[in-house]
Specification:
The chain is α+β, with helices and mostly antiparallel strands. The protein has three domains: 150 residues, Rossmann fold (3-Layer(aba) Sandwich); 113 residues, Alpha-Beta Complex (Hect, E3 ligase catalytic domain fold); 54 residues, no CATH class. The chain has 15 helices and 16 strands. The strands form six sheets. It has a five-stranded mixed sheet with strand order 2-1-3-4-5, sandwiched between helices. Strand 14 and strand 15 form a beta hairpin. Helix 8 packs antiparallel against helix 9. The radius of gyration is 29 Å and the shape is extended.
C-alpha cells in the first residue's frame, strides 16, 4: 500500500462535511534550488499528497497545490509568497485542510508555525502530514503539532550549528577555501600562487604603487583613466565564470583591492559580520557590516603570496581612514541648504546615463545635473539640464 493510499485513523473523528465543503491545500517546498533539481523523489512524495486529499473525500477540483516556494528556505515567511498565500486563504476561511509532507515543509520558525496554528484553530482548519490528520482546536493535537514545530526549528538550528562548527574548524586550521581575489589563483592541488598572467600581475602591482605615490583612490582612478589602463577581473560566477575580463577602472573596485588583506598574504575570515537588525528578508546578502581588524573572527598572516607587506597594508588602511575623515570634515562643516527649492523633481529625477539620482543646483536658474560617472569612473559629467524646461 502506497503512502497516498494509506488510511487515516483520525478521519472519522476530525474530517467533517464542513471541512469537505472548503478547499484542501497541498503545500510543497524544497529548501534549495539544488534539491529541486536533484532530489526528485521528495517532490514526487509531496505531489502525491494531492491523491491523499482525494482519498480523504475532497473532489479533485477542490484541491489546490501551492508550490511557489520551491528552492526557498522555511527559516522565515517574508520571502515565501506561497506560504503567505496559504496563511491569507486560511484567515479568509477558505481552507478545510492543509497538507504538508511534514512540519518542516511548512515552517522552520516557531513564530510562523504558531501563527498558522492559531489561525487554523480560529477558522477550523485541519492540518495533515505523513503521520495523520490533526485539529489545532483539540488540546492533544495542538500539543503534538507544537512539539513537531519545535523539533523542526531545533533541527534547523542543529544543522546550522554543525555546518558552522565544521567551517570554523577549517578556518582555525587555515584550510578554509575562500574565494580568491583577482591576482591570485588556486591550483588543483590547493596551492595558491600569483596569477600566471604577467599583465594581470603588473596591473595589480601598479595599483598599490600608484596609491603609495598619489595617496588616494580618486587620484589612482584618474591616473588609470588617463593612461587608458583597464583592470583585470576573473569571474567567479555568472555567464563568464572562469574567464578573465578587462574592465574600465572604478572607484569602488580600487577601494576593494586596497582594502583586501589577501593581497598582503593574510587569510582573514569574518571581515563582514551579520547584524540581524540590518537584514532585509528575502535578500541574503544584506545586513553584513564591515568590522575593524580587531573584531575579525580569524586572521592569519603569511598564508598567500603577497603583493604588499602586512605593514604596508596597515599603512594603506590608515591612509584610507584619514582620507575619509578629511572628506567628512570638508563636507559636514556646514549643514547646507534645506531640501527645498523651485525644482519640482529634486530627489526624483534619475540620470538616463548612469542611473544615479540627479542633483539640483540653484545659481541663476535651477538645473538638474549628474556627476555619477565622474565619481565612480573619473569620466566627464553625465548631463546638466535646465530645470524649468523639464518641470
Amino acid at each position: 500500500m502506497s503512502y497516498a493510499d494509506s488510511p487515516n485513523l483520525g478521519r472519522q473523528h476530525r474530517i467533517t462535511e464542513h471541512h469537505l465543503q472548503r478547499l484542501a491545500y497541498v503545500y510543497i517546498r524544497q529548501s534549495t534550488p539544488k534539491q529541486v533539481l536533484h532530489n526528485q523523489e521528495s517532490q514526487l512524495n509531496q505531489y502525491q499528497l494531492v491523491r491523499r486529499a482525494e482519498n480523504l473525500g475532497w473532489k479533485q477540483e477542490r484541491v489546490r497545490v501551492i508550490d511557489a516556494d520551491q528552492g526557498t528556505s522555511a527559516r522565515e515567511s517574508k520571502s515565501r509568497n506561497g506560504f503567505q498565500e496559504l496563511v491569507a486563504e486560511v484567515s479568509l476561511g477558505h481552507v478545510g485542510i492543509i497538507f504538508g509532507y511534514e512540519v518542516s515543509r511548512l515552517a522552520r520558525n516557531n513564530g510562523d508555525w504558531y501563527h498558522l496554528l492559531d489561525l487554523s484553530a480560529v477558522f477550523g482548519t485541519l492540518i495533515a502530514d505523513c503521520d495523520g490528520v490533526y485539529d489545532p482546536r483539540l488540546y492533544n493535537d495542538r500539543l503534538l503539532l507544537g512539539l513537531k514545530g519545535t523539533m523542526s526549528e531545533a533541527e534547523l538550528h542543529l544543522l546550522r550549528q554543525r555546518l558552522d562548527a565544521g567551517r570554523m574548524s577549517q578556518v582555525r586550521r587555515g584550510e578554509y577555501r575562500q574565494l580568491l581575489p583577482t591576482g591570485l589563483v588556486r591550483l588543483p592541488d590547493g596551492t595558491v600562487i600569483k596569477d600566471p598572467d604577467d599583465q594581470v600581475r603588473h596591473v595589480m602591482e601598479l595599483i598599490f604603487v600608484r596609491f603609495d605615490e598619489l595617496g588616494s583612490c580618486r587620484k589612482v582612478l584618474s591616473w588609470l583613466r588617463g593612461e587608458n589602463i583597464l583592470l583585470p577581473r576573473r569571474q567567479t560566477a555568472g555567464l563568464h565564470k572562469g574567464e578573465l575580463l578587462w574592465k574600465p577602472p572604478s572607484y569602488s573596485v580600487i577601494y576593494k583591492i586596497l582594502s583586501n588583506p589577501t593581497y598582503a598574504g593574510a587569510f582573514a575570515y569574518g571581515r563582514r559580520q551579520l547584524d540581524p537588525t540590518k537584514h532585509i528578508p528575502g535578500r541574503p546578502s544584506t545586513g553584513r557590516l564591515r568590522k575593524p581588524i580587531g573584531e575579525w573572527v580569524h586572521l592569519q598572516q603569511d598564508v598567500y603570496p603577497a603583493y604588499i607587506s602586512w605593514e604596508q597594508y596597515l599603512a594603506n588602511q590608515e591612509r584610507l581612514r584619514q582620507n575619509a575623515m578629511r572628506f567628512n570634515q570638508r563636507t559636514q562643516r556646514a549643514q547646507g541648504a534645506a531640501g527645498k527649492g523651485a525644482a519640482l523633481l529634486q530627489g526624483l529625477a534619475t540620470c538616463g546615463v548612469c542611473g544615479c539620482i540627479m542633483r539640483s543646483a540653484y545659481k541663476h536658474t535651477p538645473r538638474y545635473f549628474c556627476n555619477g560617472l565622474t565619481k565612480r569612473f573619473a569620466e566627464d559629467s553625465c548631463m546638466s539640464l535646465h530645470a524649468p524646461s523639464i518641470d
